[in-house]
């Protein structure tokens, strides 16, 4: 599928635009460093002076070595990504305490530039999927200097304690060394767009640290900043101890505060050296079931949706708390996006499964104005994280995403600006396969799935079978309202109809439905006008995504 689309894009000149518009990087000293701008509750990632959307891939965990990089870039190109998210591990930059080795970082940045890719660096430090596996050996095995968390019965946990003063000092020192190095080599180049501080923090199997220092802190009053940002799910005391304010949630919320406070120290110091947006990622808790106190069902203390307020209060040097999307259920996906996208927390999806069923979610995530998205495990090392991700290896991994990335890449700056202006919307086909609607000012878009391109289901004798390739939900649509009656519509495996919400005149109809592309200057180039069979039954988007510029009229 993607090969054909890319060939098609090639003919229309979109492929060239992709190269020109995707990851063109700043000439030395050109503009401000990548940063976030927020207006009217919406946030844009500003890169070289304008909003930019990261069409990302995240490399596999052990791809952070020069030899492995050879298998990262080709996959990133094949999927038409503009950004690669990749680890920088504490163990690799400081294998011996105080002796830093940035040779991998230097190679990584040099190769990213050669490949015209931006980077998001993932700091694998004290926490990586909650454990200390990426800390150097001199940290891992010195429990005295770098204490582990302690359970109620005094048994040590696998997790390092957020109250380990030496651990914090050492992690912070290494992170500052990394950020200072980046400042030296990337201040004027803007290859690195963001840095993730730690990876999926929290603790499995233990709600919080019960060590002496932690216990003493737990018995103190909840800090005022936390009270201001985080309401208790059950209204209790307005202030006082963690237990008094948060009741049965107190242990988890305290642990979130302890970890967030630790990360804040690392982030603040790192940012003073190199000021780019910083974020944390989250191994999610169930976003659909009613909120309840922790019962071993997720990593306690991680930035789950219910404690975003605590992270905002304790870690002001982090810009974003971001969800890692590995639950394929559409209801979970929708609910998670809704909970993480807030006026004080921009949407960013730094990890998503690369199983084919997730490709439809790209339309929804980018339609909602996310700063970026990155399917996880996209490289050509011989590894797949099935069953979280796809069973496939090699090229088939990239195929479900490639055409969508090519399309958004061809109009990246425009789409990013529209998103910043609040003009974009997105949906993906639900597991129930039902129609969905999108409100668009005086218009409503109704999106249906599993339709043939011609005719109506209600017709007598209309085929009862469904089009091939729609066995599993795979539809998605993103719409930008670029004028009162004008829309840019993109998507796959969906039928879109637009109807007026206002009773004006006798009715409404398409004025124009142009298929085309935007040129490098952002000017629309029409390739053909859809009419007749192509519009009589709505706009039928197939597995070969196109860009439609649609104008509605009333008569
Ligand atoms: C989420 C983590 O953040 C990644 O580093 C990786 O371990 C994936 N899970 C699973 O492959």
List keywords for this structure.
eight-stranded parallel beta barrel; 23 strands; six-stranded antiparallel sheet; about 550 residues; globular; disordered N terminus; binds (2R,3S,4R,5S)-2-(hydroxymethyl)piperidine-3,4,5-triol; alpha/beta
Can you put this structure into words, describing what you see?
The chain has 555 residues and is of the alpha/beta class. It is 30% helix and 25% strand. It contains 18 helices and 23 strands. The strands form 5 sheets. It has an 8-stranded parallel beta barrel with strand order 4-5-6-9-10-11-12-13, surrounded by 6 helices. The radius of gyration is 24 Å and the shape is globular. It starts with a helix and ends with a strand. Bound molecules: (2R,3S,4R,5S)-2-(hydroxymethyl)piperidine-3,4,5-triol.
């Amino acid at each position: 599928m993607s090969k054909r689309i890319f060939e098609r894009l090639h003919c229309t000149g979109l492929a060239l635009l992709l190269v020109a518009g995707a990851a063109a990087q700043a000439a030395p000293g050109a503009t401000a460093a990548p940063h976030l701008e927020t207006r009217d509750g919406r946030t844009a990632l500003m890169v070289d002076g304008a909003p930019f959307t990261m069409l990302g891939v995240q490399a596999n965990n052990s791809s952070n070595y020069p030899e492995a990089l050879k298998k990262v870039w080709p996959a990133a190109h094949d999927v038409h990504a503009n950004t690669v998210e990749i680890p920088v591990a504490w163990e690799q930059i400081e294998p011996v305490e105080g002796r830093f080795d940035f040779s991998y970082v230097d190679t990584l940045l040099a190769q990213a530039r050669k490949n015209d890719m931006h980077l998001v660096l993932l700091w694998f430090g004290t926490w990586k999927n909650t454990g200390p596996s990426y800390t150097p050996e001199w940290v891992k095995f010195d429990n005295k200097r770098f204490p582990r968390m302690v359970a109620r019965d005094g048994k040590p946990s696998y997790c390092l304690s957020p109250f380990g003063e030496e651990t914090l000092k050492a992690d912070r020192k290494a992170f500052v060394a990394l950020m200072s190095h980046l400042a030296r080599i990337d201040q004027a180049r803007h290859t690195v767009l963001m840095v993730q501080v730690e990876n999926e923090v929290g603790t499995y199997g233990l709600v919080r640290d019960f060590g002496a220092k932690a216990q003493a802190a737990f018995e103190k009053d909840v800090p005022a900043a936390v009270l201001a940002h985080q309401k208790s799910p059950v209204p209790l005391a307005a202030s006082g101890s963690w237990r008094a304010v948060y009741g049965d949630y107190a242990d988890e919320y305290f642990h979130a505060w302890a970890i967030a406070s630790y990360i804040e120290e690392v982030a603040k110091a790192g940012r003073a050296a190199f000021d780019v947006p910083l974020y944390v990622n989250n191994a999610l808790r169930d976003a659909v079931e009613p909120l309840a106190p922790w019962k071993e069902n997720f990593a306690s203390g991680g930035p789950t949706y219910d404690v975003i307020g605590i992270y905002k209060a304790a870690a002001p040097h982090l810009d974003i708390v971001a969800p890692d999307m590995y639950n394929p259920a559409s209801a979970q996906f929708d609910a998670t996006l809704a909970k993480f996208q807030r006026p004080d927390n921009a949407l960013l999806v730094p990890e998503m499964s690369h199983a084919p069923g997730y490709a439809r979610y790209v339309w929804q995530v980018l339609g909602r104005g996310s700063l970026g998205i990155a399917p996880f495990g996209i490289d050509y090392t011989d590894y797949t994280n099935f069953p979280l991700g796809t069973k496939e290896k090699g090229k088939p991994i990239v195929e479900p995403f490639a055409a969508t990335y090519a399309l958004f890449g061809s109009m990246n700056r425009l789409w990013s600006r529209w998103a910043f202006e609040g003009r974009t919307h997105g949906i993906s086909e639900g597991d129930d396969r039902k129609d969905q609607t999108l409100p668009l000012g005086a218009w409503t878009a109704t999106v249906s799935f599993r339709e043939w391109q011609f005719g109506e289901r209600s017709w007598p004798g209309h085929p009862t079978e469904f089009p091939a390739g729609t066995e599993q939900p795979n539809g998605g649509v993103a719409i930008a309202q670029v004028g009162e009656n004008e829309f840019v519509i993109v998507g796959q495996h969906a039928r879109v109809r637009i109807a007026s919400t206002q009773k004006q005149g006798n009715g409404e109809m398409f004025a124009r439905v142009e298929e085309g592309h935007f040129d490098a200057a952002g000017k629309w180039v029409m390739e053909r006008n859809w009419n007749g069979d192509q519009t009589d039954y709505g706009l039928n988007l197939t597995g070969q995504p196109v860009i439609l510029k649609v104008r509605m009229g009333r008569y």
